[in-house]
Structures are given as structure tokens and as C-alpha cells.
Amino acid sequence: MKSIFKSKFAIFGVMAPAAIWLVLFLILPYANLFLYSFWKNGAFSVVHEFSLQNYIKFFTRSTTGGAPYLILLNTITLSLWVTLFTLIVSFPLSYYIRFYVKKYKQQLYMLVIIPLWVSYVMRAYSWKIILGTNGILNSFLMATYLTNRPLSVFLYSRVSVIIAMTHIYTPFVLMPIYTSLEQLPETLLEASSDLGASPLRTFCKVIFPMSLPGIITGATYAFVLSMGDFLAPSLLGGPTSSTQIANIVQMQFGTSNNWPYGAAIGIIILVMVISLLTVTELLQKKLLHAAGGSNGIR
Q1: What is the predicted pLDDT for the residue at 154?
Q2: Which mean pLDDT values do the consecutive 10-residue runs of the chain (298 residues) have?
Q3: Which of 201, 249, 199 is nearest to 229 (CA)?
Q4: How far is CA 117 from CA 45, 94, 104, 110, 213, in A?
Q5: What whole-number distance in Å separates Cα of residue 181 and Cα of residue 24?
Q6: What number of other Cβ atoms are within 10 A of residue 122's Cβ?
Q7: CA dihedral (37, 40, 41, 47) positive or negative
Q8: What is the pLDDT of residue 296?
């Protein structure tokens, strides 16, 4: 009995700091944000009076750049494009490193994730240097006589925002995909070959299904992170592309000084993210269960 008590006390001692940190820096701030979303914005301060006007305003009124819920839909569309392109870049690269690189595999993997060590601002600004009218891309096009003047379509547009975000968030997508591919048992691949399955059939029936949890995790990272990004649209977006839902939140807590409205938008985004994470978690469990239940090649 005494040993059981000691073990439970030891577990509590290990978990207590993490639990305190979680409550102080995650649960309480979100609870405070939730309370703020139901208060009113006064002339010089926040009025602590319960109201649903912030949520009503989000779904009815318009702001600079359009109605807030339309900006949210626009942000979701942009995030979906970013997610798609990061997957297009990450999966083939992960597949190549896993199955075709025999030497210096870890070094090549490290080269892919090295951009994470560089400041986010530097990575975003680097695309201004590349895509600008006097940038590297326009200089190359003019040097090769593909155009006789600098093209302004690359910068301050939706395209430039998607390109920059794809570059910034590709490492977050590649890591879980590569991990899922790296964890594939060699015996399973050998069994597929011994049973007469072609490389394409092995990919479709074994490799791709087993890598789906990593793909879903990476896609979730890309979607959630790009939805909350306000810096890249501000630096690289034009008059329409620079206004994303995160920019609206940043504006409410900054220049507009309307904290209750910003809190309400933040809570709406939070609910969306939690719903998405719940769905992806259930989907991952279902895929893992299906993969564990039947690994045969048909």
C-alpha cells in the first residue's frame, strides 16, 4: 500500500508542473478570451456587460475588405491551396528520401527542415526579394528574354502569399509524412513483392494507406498554421490578399482597439480549429485501426 502511494505521489510530482503550466498559460488565457468575447467595447475601455453583439457583428456587418465571415471563407480557401501545394511538395520529397536515398539520408532530411531555424520574418522577406519587380525572378526572365519588362503579377497578390506560405509550412508537412514512411516495416514491403505485387500496386495498397496518418497530420498543420498567419499576407499580399481573418484579429487588438470583437473572432477560429483537430484525430484512429486489422495485398 505504501509503495502504491509513493508511486502515485511520484506520478503527481512529474505531472504537476506540466498541469500548472497548462492551466496558467493555456486554459486561463482562453477562458479570459472567451469572457472578453461577450463584453462590449466602450469609448475608452471595455464595458463588462454581457452581449452577443460581437458574434452578431461578425456574421452580419462588413468591415474594410468585406464581411468578416466572407473573409473567413476566403482565408479557408487560401489555406486549402497552401495545404494542397505543401502536400504536393512534401510527399514526393519524403518518398524519395525514404526509398531512394541510401547515403546521407539524415543530412538530406536536415537540409529540408533547416529553414525552421531561420527567422519567419527573414523567410517572408526573402520572397519579396525573389518576387519583386527588381527581384531575382524578374531579373532571370528579363535576362533570358522571356519578358521585356518586370512583371508585377508575382508580388502583392494571392499567388505570392500562397508561394511564401507553401515554402514556410512545407517542413511542418514533410516531417510527419517522412516519419510515417520511415516507420513502414521492410518485411511488409518484401512480403508485397514476394506475393507478386508490382511497385505501383505496392504503393497503392501498402505505402500510401500506411502513410495516410502522416499525410493527415501534415495537412492539418499546414491548414491550421496558414489560417492563423497574418504576417505573410501583410508583407506579400495585395489590397485583397493582405486581408485574412488573422489580420482582422490583429487589427482589432491593435489599431482598432476593439478587444471584445477580436476575442469573438478568435473564439470562432478556435472552435473551427478544435473541430478540425477532433475530426482528423478520429480519422487517424480509424485509418490506424483499419491498417492494423488488414495488411494483406489484394
Answers
A1: 80
A2: 59 76 89 93 84 90 66 92 96 93 87 86 87 85 85 82 93 94 88 86 90 93 92 80 82 88 93 91 80 51
A3: 249
A4: 40, 20, 20, 11, 26
A5: 37
A6: 9
A7: negative
A8: 46
What confidence score (pLDDT) does residue 3 get? 60
Can you give the pLDDT at residue 7? 63
Q: What is the pLDDT, as a whole number, of residue 297?
A: 44
Which 8-state DSSP code applies to residue 43? S
Separation between Cα atoms, residue 152 and residue 52, nearest integer Å = 44
* Helix (H/G/I), strand (E/B), else coil: 63: strand
Residue 260 to residue 132: CA distance in whole angstroms: 38
Residue type, 194: D
How would you label 23-53 residue by residue, b for 16+ Cβ within 10 Å and e otherwise? Answer: eeeeeeeeeebeebbbbebeeeeeeeeeeeb
Q: Please, are residues 133 and 152 in contact by the beta-carbon 8 Å criterion?
A: yes
Degrees, nearest 5: CA angle 34-218-185? 135
Q: What is the pLDDT of residue 165?
A: 94
Measure the CA angle with vertex 52, ends 47 and 57; round to 5°.
100
Task: Enter the DSSP assignment of 191.
Answer: H
CB atoms within 10 A of CB 99: 14
Q: Could you tell me if residue 103 is left (phi over 0), alpha (psi between -120 and 50 degrees) or otherwise beta?
A: beta
Strand, coil or helix: what is 41? strand
Burial class (CB in 10 A: 0-12, 13-18, 19+), 144: exposed
CA-wise closest residue to 132 among 173, 107, 160, 166: 160
